[in-house]
Design a protein that fits this description.
Layout: H1 2-19, E1 23-33, E2 37-49, E3 64-73, E4 77-89, E5 92-103, E6 105-106, E7 109-110, E8 112-113, E9 122-134, E10 146-156, E11 158-159, E12 167-170, E13 173-176, E14 179-190, E15 197-209, E16 213-226, E17 231-240, E18 244-255
Antiparallel strand pairs: 1-2, 1-18, 2-3, 3-4, 4-5, 5-9, 6-7, 8-12, 9-10, 9-11, 10-14, 12-13, 14-15, 15-16, 16-17, 17-18
Amino acid sequence: MKKILAVLCVLLCSLCLVSAEGVTSTEVNVAYQYPVAAMLSGKVTYTIPCLTGDGSNPLLAGNNLALAAYGEVNPLAAGADFSATLTPIPFLVFTGGVYTGSGWNFMGVEGIGASEDHIPLYYKPYAKVLFQFDTGAVVPGDWTHVVTQWTYQVQYHNVAGLDTGREFTWMGDTCTAVPGWYASGLVGYQLPAVPVIDMAGVLLEWEGTYAAGCRRSRISPMMQAVITEQDSLAAMMVFSPENGYETFAVQYTHRF
């Protein structure tokens, strides 16, 4: 069954690639996390109209396939992510990809490592589904945009040469090489009365493994500001049930 689904996905992506001409977009991000973490990242996305029918149905008009390459560097590690995202209907998005990277020691914190012999190469294949909805699509108006996004992701991460079930370190965190999951929910409100603030909301996150259940949860009040058509700024405060307040993060994005 998995092989059949994989073949169908490849055929669908191939059909989209030859069916229409795409558009390339690029963005650069600079992020800071209190007290000392920082990251520089960039992303290039090639978006192709896909499954749009004859263009007359507004429910299908925005359907697309997006191929993305992402790279990042921070004081502990550098990595790259390659993904394909299919939007068959406006409120449902499917993504599959793989992240890979390597790290080093910085100020006594280990970027990548394990107690057994291994190759210093981290990898994480993943697949996720996202459901999104904007109430403004049902009730038109400037004041009716309550935005929700819910994500569920299955993933597996390890370092090369290490057996499944073993522990390793990635960017200072102790991890276990077993299948895991990540889930998130975002509820936000677009603010028409405030010229700069585009959205304010709350991000909920859960992460765990199928063997041990949920191992981490977070709640993060957040805000996004639009500076220009190409520039935006996002900020959030992160809390967890275990530690209370954890950190503050801010990210600047420029789109070309």
